[in-house]
Every structure is written in structure tokens, then in C-alpha cells.
Please model this.
Amino acid sequence: MGAMRARVLVVDDDPALAEMLTIVLRGEGFDTAVVRDGSKALDAFREVHPDLVLLDLMLPGVSGLDVCKEIRAESGIPIIMLTAKTDTVDVVLGLESGADDYVMKPFKPKELTARIRARLRRADVGSAERLRVADVEVDVPGHQVTRDGEPISLTPLEFDLLVALARKPRQVFTREVLLEQVWGYRHAADTRLVNVHVQRLRSKIEKDPEHPEVVVTVRGVGYRAGTS
Amino acid sequence: MTGEPASLGAGPDRTEPAFPPAVQDAGGPDVVSADPAQDRPAGRSSLFDKLRRGFDRARIRVAFWSRSLLVRVVVLTLTLSTVVMLTLGLILQQQITTGLLRSKIDAATAEIDSARQTVQSSLSGADSDPSSLREQLRLALTEIGRADGSSDAQGSTAGVFEPVIVPSRVGSETDLAIQQPTGDVPAELRARIGQGEIAYQYTTIRRDGQNIPALVMGSPARTSTDSFEVYLIFPLAGELGTVQVVQRTLLLGGIALSLALTLISALVASQVVRPVRRAAASARKLAAGDLAERMPVTGPIELTTLASSFNGMAEAIRVQIRQLEEFGKLQRRFTSDVSHELRTPLTTVRMAADVLHESRQDFPPHLARSTELLVDELDRFESLLADLLEISRYDAGMAELSAEPIDIRSSINTSIAAAASVADQLGVTIVTSLPHHPVVAEIDARRVDRILRNLIYNAIDHADGKPVELELAADDDVLAITVTDHGVGLRPGEAGLVFNRFWRADPSRQRQTGGTGLGLAISLEDARLHGGWLQASGAPGEGARFRLTLPRRHGGLITASPLPLRIGADVSPSTAGAVDSTGEPGIYAEGIRMMVEDGTLKPVPSHDELHPASVPSAGPTAALSSTDQPQTPRAAADSENDGAVSAITGTPAGQPSTVGGPA
Model:
């Protein structure tokens, strides 16, 4: 695959798991770089320029959540958390600190690579669209979101989420449908992913996240784009 | 003149007047209180009645207010001090009255002596001629009335008096025609004087239109020629006034003292009550969770003892609670740590095994088979670990409900899809009966999915290849899902055991679906966390039914389930149309043809495009078809009585069927 190989930065303190991840990812055709210490993760990230970060939440030194926030502050690249914690609070905390997705330990290699591929595969750019949701302008090919000319910085996943909603403004999307369309998962995924990402998206694009106008909740069903 | 004699103090010893009984005894006109305005002569018995009534009233009041120490003390003090003041006042008044009258009598005795001597000397040798006698009498009267020489007030210690001299000779009295109040002398006294005694009697005289109590002292006076009766009438107006003043003073003083005592007692009681209240407030704060709350250790020794005891107790409680909290925290930490520490190496092993498994065709047969076993058992190990951790989370009280409104039908479809491959392997059809409209409930989707998955896997496991039915019904407050199989069923008593950890109906029976034995126990906890019910019923040979009943709003209460728990208690297939909770008979009869593709349950006439699975599904594509109606073989309804029904969460067994649902 040569230059086409996607580069994955593995941030994990467990040497065996890190090595195993390397073996599996190389076998699946990814380039990998491993950093074992959370405090060096950011430096490694700047150096390696990965296409995706695989981040273990339980790191010595720096908390995985902090690493996640640091990387997210610099870049919108996909971050997948590896977590052994199954509690909702832990998962939600991880997602809120900027991760796009999480994989619960123990996981199957196929499951992990499927998630990685789903994150690396960008949604179809489509035609030169300009969408408008409420007072937010979305330039789809340009990956630009603006309100009154002011650009709003979104991660690719948040952008995809907004575009998915904005393309069918009248449609109500269930969480399952959004998981399918935005994350690319058919089933067995956690709808908490959607909830947290909608919250994150709202915190960036809504004037008042408490009273959302762009991404509107349809109680008991899901979400839809707000009316312009 | 009343003519009604008071009790007589009589006898030779005149210094022992019989007056005191007159004061105490009820009845006759009292010297002191002849004034009708004073109602004190109501006497002792009516006084005690009044006291008793007062006591009764006070007791009722005390009973009413007995929950307040302050009020109790005040009422008690007021009552008791009133009683004491009344008693004391009565005694004092009696003493004063007695003393007053005694000195009056003493003075009167001296006065009558001198009067008698005056009469004897003045009338000695008095003429029997009435006119001269009249003159002599007048002189004698004047002489008596002016004993000390002063003009109007006779001036002796006995005070003013009116002398009366009556000749003993019968008939002479009327002839004298002297202006003197002879009529004020009681006849009884005259009789006794006539017998030669010196005596006195209390009576009432009328002066200036007023009835005045009076003391009449009488003595016979014998001259050499004649005998007279000398009477001195002492009006007791002065004494009456004095006694009235004393009475008023005592009354006012008593009232004032009672009130003062009450006030003092209230003050004292509040001194005691205030710290008690403070202690109560502290205890309340402590109970509300403010473990740092302490009472100030100040004031009198009893209160400092109370405060320090309280503080000691609070400290002990705080330490205990801290220890328990610490213990709980440690347990949670442990659970979390075990979870992480086990999961990380397990992940590595899992991945390594899967890598081996991928290339097993390159291995010699024994290595290939070993790899397969390794992967399969790792699956079991993983699910067992997951279940154990979940159970221990419940045991540690760490489970949290993250409820949000969700269409329960999507949960059902997800769960059926997850079980589809296993169902297909075992040749089990899953027949669903779902309403056509969304059934939105505030649930924790992850937990409800897990309950449903466990129930479905369990049913498939025990279905013996027969269809498994899944039905959903809901009313405004509650939804119910039943999962029914028609396999071996449950023996009597087993319905209560199925939720036990690691319980197996038949230990020799192999689990096909790889259950850990903890699934139903976890499901029960999940249901309870929702405030819902999870119940089982069944009969041997008939199959088993599990019913999950959940409130549609978080925190709602369930009173009845919209679906029956017993197999055979539901409607017959011929009326199955009524099962549909849209309330439109016949709609269900259309049926929904479902198929499972890549683990997703889809209606067969799919207008949705079928996406390729991003996540590999575990099993081959399975087709799941729902029959037109839930006409799967049902056990005969007559075996219902043999059914073992268990109400795990407190529902009466054998609930009446409520199928039909809301319109």
C-alpha cells in the first residue's frame, strides 16, 4: 500500500497489549507508532502526524482523558479510546474529552480494525453543497462551518454528524440511524456515542446549548436539524 | 333584723368565742361576709368543686399540650400556684378575721362589765315608777355611751356601740318608750341573758338602709331593787371593711404571685428546653447528613453532659459512616481495578488467539483445533468476566440508571437481531408481536437490551426447537414484554429459582447459547434498577414465560402488567388481533415479515437499503420470519393450573389477563 498506508499512533502503557496491537494493525495494513507514556503522547503525536490515535484511557502519569483533550486541542483527527471501564460515567467522560469512539476491552481484532476503518473512511464529500441549518452555514466540500461569517471549528466526526442531519432537514434521525450513517456501524454500537457527540456539537454550534436550535431533540425518537 | 341567729358562742368562759366555726361552716350568715357582693361564703364544697373543675380543665389542657415540655411546666405551675394561693389566702383571711373578732370580743367584754356597773350604780334603787325609771334609764344610757367622756365616739377599744337597757320585769319595757334599738337584740340572746348568763351573739342590724353585721353583748345587771338586761350592740362595719381590704389584697396578691410564678417557671423551663431544642436541631442536622454537626459544650453541667454525650455519639456515627464509606469506596475501587487489570491482559490474549485463529488452516490439525478451543473458551471467559463484574457492580451498589426516552421496539429488534444467528443454528423461530406505533419509555437502553438478550437466549436455549414468542404491550404508564418458549418448561417451584446465580434447571443440560448462569440474575437486577418487574412462570412440558414489566416514566410505579404472566392466560389465536395495542383488530393479522441480515432485524419488504456490515457479524445470515399470527403451538390451557408461577418482584401470581391494551 506504500504511501497509502494509514498511520495509527498507539498510546498504551501495557507493553504486551501495545505490541499485540502493533502486530494486528500491521497485519491489517496500517503503519503504527507506539508511545507508552502518556506524558510523551503529545510530542509523539506532533512528530508522527498520525491519521488516527488509539488511546488507552488508563495511563500512568497523565490521565488518558488529559491526553485526549491535549490532542483534541491541536487537531480534529479521529481518536478511539481503549477502555476497560464499562461504567456510563467513564465512557461519557472519555467521549466528552474529545474521543470520537471507544472500544471496550477485551475486544476482538476485527472489531477494532472495523472501528478504525470506519473512522478513517471519510464520508462522501458529494457535490459542491452549501447547507444551512438555522443560522449556521455548512460548506460541505470546503469542510467549513460558519455562523455570520465566523468560522466554527468542528472535528470531522462532528462535521459529518451535522451534515447528515442538515442534508435531510425534515427527517428525524434515530440514534441507530445516525450510528449507521455517521459512524458506519450497523449494530452493537452504543447509542451513548450519539448522545455525547450531539452534546459536543451543540456546545460548539449552538448559541445556547441549553435551548438548541441547530440540532433539535425529538423526544423518544432522536434528533433532527433545526429549521432555518 | 334577720332573726336568724348565728351560731352561739356561749358559756361561762367568754374569752373562748365560738366564732371561728361560724366562719368555716357553710350556712348561716357570716359576720364578715354578710355583704352579698362577696360570694366567698359559697363555702368549701363548692370551692372544691370549682378546684376540681379547674384541675380537670387543666388536665385536659395538659394532655393536649403535654407534648410541649414548656407548656406543660407553665400550665402545671399556674394550676398548682393557684391552688396554693387560694388555700393560703383562705387560711390567712380566716386568721385575720378570727383575730379581729377576738379582740373585738375582748374589748366588748370589758365594755359590758363597765356598762353593767354603770347600770347597777345608776339604777340602784331606781324607782319602779315608769317615768322616773325612764329618766334614770336615759341617764344610764347616756352614761354608758359616754364612758370615756368623749362626745360621739365612745372611744374604747371596742369601738362604737349602742347600749340597750331593758328592765327584766315583764311589761315594763313597753312602758319605758325610750328610743333604743331593742329590736336588734336577738330573742335567743335575751333568753339566755334572762337566765343570768353573760353572752354574745352575732346578728345583722339595719342602719341607714344597710344591713350591717353586728356583735351584741349582753349582761344581766341587778340592782338592789330591780334587775335589768344590758346589751351593747357593736356594729362591725369597720371590721367588715378591714376584712374586705384584706380579701382584696390577698386576691390580687395571689393572682400576681401565681402569674409571677408561672412566668418564672416559663423562664426556667425555657432555660431547660432551649438546650434540648438545640440538641434536637443538632440531631436533625446530623440525621440529614451533616456529620460535622456538634453541640456547643457550654452552660450548666447537665447540659454540658448532654452536649458532650451528643457530640460523642455524633463522632462515633461519623467514624462508622466514614469507615463504611471507605469500605464501599475500596470495594468499588477493587471492582474497578479488577476489571481493568483483568481486561488488559485478556485483550492481549484475545487478540493473540484471534491472530492464531485466522491462520489455523496453516496449522497441523491438533494445533488448529487447540486454537479453536482457545478462542471459544476465551469467549466464554470474557462473558463470564463481564457478567461477574456486572453482578459485583450491583453488589457494590455502583449501578446507575441512565434512563432516556427510547422506542422500546428498537431495543427488541436489536436484541432479536443479536440472537438471530444462534436461533438459526438451533432451528428456533422468533415470533414477535409488536405494536405498530412507537412505544416510548424512559429506560436505560443498555440494560434493557441486556435483559431482552438474556431472556431471548434463555428461551432459545430451552425451546427445544419450537418457536419462541415475544410480545410487547403497553398502556399509558407501563409496558410489558413477554418472552415465551414451549420447551421443557419449569417444574413447580423452579420459577423462583431461575433468577438465582448459576442456577440450572437440569445440570446435565448443555447451554447452547453460551450463557454464563448469571444472565437472569443480572437481568433481574437491571429490571429492579428500572423499578420494574421481571417474573417467570411455566409448567412442565408447557414451556416457560418470562415477563418484563417496566414503568414508562423513570421513577413511575407499576401496579399491574399489561400482559399475563401465565402461558395460556392470554387470548386465543382467533382473537389475536386484539393483542395489537393499536386497538385495531385485524391490523396484527397483516403480520410483519421480518428477516435478519447481518445481525439486523429488517422487515422483509425492505425499502431501506441493506448496508454491508461494517462490523462483522458472528454468525451466518439468518432469516427470521414472523408468522401471520402468533399461532405457534401453545400448550393446552387446561394445564394452566399446574403452572409454576413465581412473582419475583411481588406481583400476585396469576394476574388476570389484561391483554387488549389501550386504544
